[in-house]
Amino acid sequence: MAGEDEKGKGKARAAGGGPPKLDRRDLLMGLSTVPALGLFGYAWNKQRQYQQARAEAATAPPVAPADLQEINVALIGAGAQGQVLTEAMLRIPGLRFRAVCDIWTEYNQKRVVNTLKRFKHEVNGYEDYREMLDKEKAIDAVMIATPDFWHAQHTIDCLKAGKHVYCEKEMSNTLEGARSMVLAARDTGKLLQIGHQRRSNPRYIHCYEKLLTEAKLLGRIVTVYGQWNRGVTPDLGAPDRYVIPETRLTQYGFKDMHQFRNWRWYKGKGGGPIVDLGSHQIDIYSWFLGANPSHVMASGGQLYYDPKTHEWYDTVMVVYDYDTPLGPAKAYYQTQTTNGSQGYFENFMGDQGTLLISESEVNNAGSLYRDPNAPAWDEWIQKGYVSAPQLQEVKEKSDTGAIADVRESVAPDRHTVPVALRDPYHQPHLQNFFDTVRGKAKLNCPPEVAYETAVAVLKVNEAIEAGFRLSFKAEDFKI
Amino acid sequence: MRDGGPDVEGGLGIAGPRELGDVRRFSHEAMATSFEVYAVHPDERYAAQAAQAAFELTDRLERELSRFVPNSDITRVNHLVAGEGARVGPSTMECLVIARHLFDLTGGAFDPSIGTGLASLELDADDFMVRATIDGVQIDLGAIGKGYAVDLMAELLEEWGLQHALVHGGFSSVLALEPPPGRDGWPLTLSDPGAPSRVLARLSVCQTALGASGVRKGDHIVDPRTGEPARGRKAAWVALPRPARAGAEASAEGPRMAAAAVTDALTTAMMLLSIEEIAALCERSPGLEAWVLPESVGGPPGEADLIYFGGRL
Ligand SMILES: NC(=O)c1ccc[n+]([C@@H]2O[C@H](COP(=O)([O-])OP(=O)(O)OC[C@H]3O[C@@H](n4cnc5c(N)ncnc54)[C@H](O)[C@@H]3O)[C@@H](O)[C@H]2O)c1
């Protein structure tokens, strides 16, 4: 035991690079003796309030309470994401589904209409969104989850028809499209929220507001790394019996069933994995860095899939430059579709600490590391902004060597983000939209913000084609 | 196809998959196990796409049903305190309703709340609301979720026109649809989980779900009724024919019969129920069959005989 004590001390010193910080250790020991203290105070309360609000919402009857104005909603695009949005919206009180529009009437449309009927929403199905807008006058808000190349037209026509719109990312497959959406929102005075849902995720908001802005735990962020890697999967198909007739496909801009199902890979329809996946995370880069990029260089290739049916790059590696309020920074982003190693996450590296976070809490609970020379985080631990390092376990294991063991566990300084998201990923972002419709909130992703992200992201494909570094001007991001 | 002997795990397997001819196999990791689709179809690409769609369904179910996923329906349910309610998706509700039904049917031997109070959760299937009447109910659908996923995967494959197929989740839950052409069933083996080469029974099945539960030497499962470790069983298997129309709605007597979910849950119960109780359950339930491998007392290890229940013999 004595030997272990010595070892422990030595480690603590080496790691700290100076004399052991007794005050800090004592404080942590104090915390460790009271169960659940790592989550006390701010974070605990916040989590509790959040859960209470959610529980109240959940126990509320499906019809909105008297003081809650019921919002009539419609969905355009009942595919994979349309179904995810629908499921999340079914958990939000005060919504009344009126209509579902999808050109795949025999499959996706039918599925969503049936689900909604099971939840007692009497909805009408439409193939043509214009017919829906003509007939369903009561609709207040439209959710758009069609392929990217349809977003601008769908959004603008809905706004002009007097509806508020929640439109999925990527805002549009072209900058002109995205720009015209911003202008339409301004002209009509209707709300437009773009589906970068991390902007409303309580975990990301906690990181931005509390950890980066208030506590400045990372110091100055100089580099960022992020990725979304996926393993090989077959192209999307469709059951034989539900194949869409060719005339309908062409009417809506698809050359065949393969393109209809795999539009993401086609030029003029989607933007490939960098736009599909990268846009979520590059949006966070700008948000957390407090700046839009100044330059971009990128390499990409059609390395693996049939280039005839995969017109966009299956592998992309990007480096952005930023002039942040705290100084210059570089951010790397990678997406590839042939190996899912380590999935998806964003890693912000500052001179005083590291924040490693992912939307998927299963994959990454949100890790924080303090640089050994950075100021202690005791205050933030006490406030509940970050968890205490896990001390209890280590302490219990030893009877006499408590101090040494505590030090040993302090050395790596791994903390976690003590806020959990218990709802489906998109629910808080949708809730923010509906709260804003009711005049009780501000949009977390208005079109101007999503436009800035579109500018940063769509430029990657251009940079790959150009083969050299491209620069952004400040006015590129403004409309 | 894998080379060599049978594909076996935990006491249930496919005999000689290599001899099955034109069967394609697709695998996917989910719910901490390996899901597989065996299917006969002339178009490899089409079959792969159908299997992929089935695997995506499994991933979605895992996101809703897993207690390890921080924002799943089940995690939300597990955080309810008395008087609170949570809205859940249709799949979660259906799986919970089936689970509740089997809890009642087995007198609590199958208990996804492991003694924390399943009966104190109100399942409002009309409104898709789960309400807690006490604090601290902890649901773990681990003993039914794989089976339920297998049921839904099979329905999806049929929708895609892949009738000649077999789906399984880690071999603890198997659902055989139509057999490969020229065969009267999918050849399955029941074997000693401690000694997989010791085949105890061979079956040829179609439109049937088979579930397996077993313990390796030294392991035990906890009886949720007593909280004590259960002894005396090495393995149990349950077979149940699939109802004529798989997607059929729930009837007045109970939830719709998702055959693989039911067998998955029942195998856990059969590890705990007495021989008399198992016999009575099989008698009351037409079509239900069970095999139980007792722990050998005395004698050389692994030599106890299989006990069969049901109408086959
Ligand atoms: N926020 C997120 O996390 C997230 C995740 C996935 C997808 N998305 C976005 O959601 C959108 C849809 O993606 P998806 O994966 O659901 O695609 P999908 O191909 O599965 O679904 C698209 C649906 O739109 C329908 N559709 C196509 N053109 C139409 C038209 N003109 N009118 C009406 N319906 C039409 C199709 O029939 C299909 O059902 C995309 O913009 C995508 O980027 C966002």
Kindly describe this structure:
The complex is a heterodimer of chains A (479) and B (313). Chain A has helices at residues 2-16, 22-33, 42-59, 80-89, 105-118, 129-135, 151-160, 175-188, 202-214, 246-251, 257-261, 272-289, 378-382, 392-397, 402-410, 427-437, 447-466, and strands at 71-76, 95-101, 124-126, 141-144, 164-167, 192-194, 221-229, 293-301, 315-324, 327-336, 344-350, 353-357, 367-370, 414-416, 470-471. With 479 residues, chain A is of the alpha/beta class. Chain A has two domains: 56-196, Rossmann fold; 199-424 and 448-477, Dihydrodipicolinate Reductase, domain 2. The model of chain A is unreliable at 1-48, 59-64 and 392-411 (pLDDT under 50). Chain B has one domain (1-313): T-fold. Helices cover 26% and strands 28% of the residues of chain B. Chain B contains six helices and 17 strands. Chain B has helices at 44-65, 73-78, 90-105, 145-159, 259-270, 275-284; strands at 7-9, 12-14, 24-30, 33-39, 85-87, 121-124, 129-132, 165-169, 173-176, 186-192, 195-205, 208-214, 221-222, 229-230, 233-241, 289-294, 307-309. In chain B, the strands form four sheets. Chain B has an eight-stranded antiparallel beta sheet with strand order 3-4-8-9-12-15-16-17. In chain B, strands 1-2-10-11 form a four-stranded antiparallel beta sheet, with no helix packed on it. In chain B, strands 5-7-6 form a three-stranded antiparallel beta sheet. The longest helix of chain B has 22 residues, at 44-65. Chain B is globular. The structure holds nicotinamide-adenine-dinucleotide.
Keywords, please?
heterodimer, A: 479 residues, alpha/beta, Rossmann fold, Dihydrodipicolinate Reductase, domain 2, 2 domains, nine-stranded mixed sheet, six-stranded parallel sheet, 17 helices, 15 strands, globular, disordered N terminus, B: 313 residues, alpha+beta, T-fold, eight-stranded antiparallel sheet, four-stranded antiparallel sheet, 17 strands, binds nicotinamide-adenine-dinucleotide
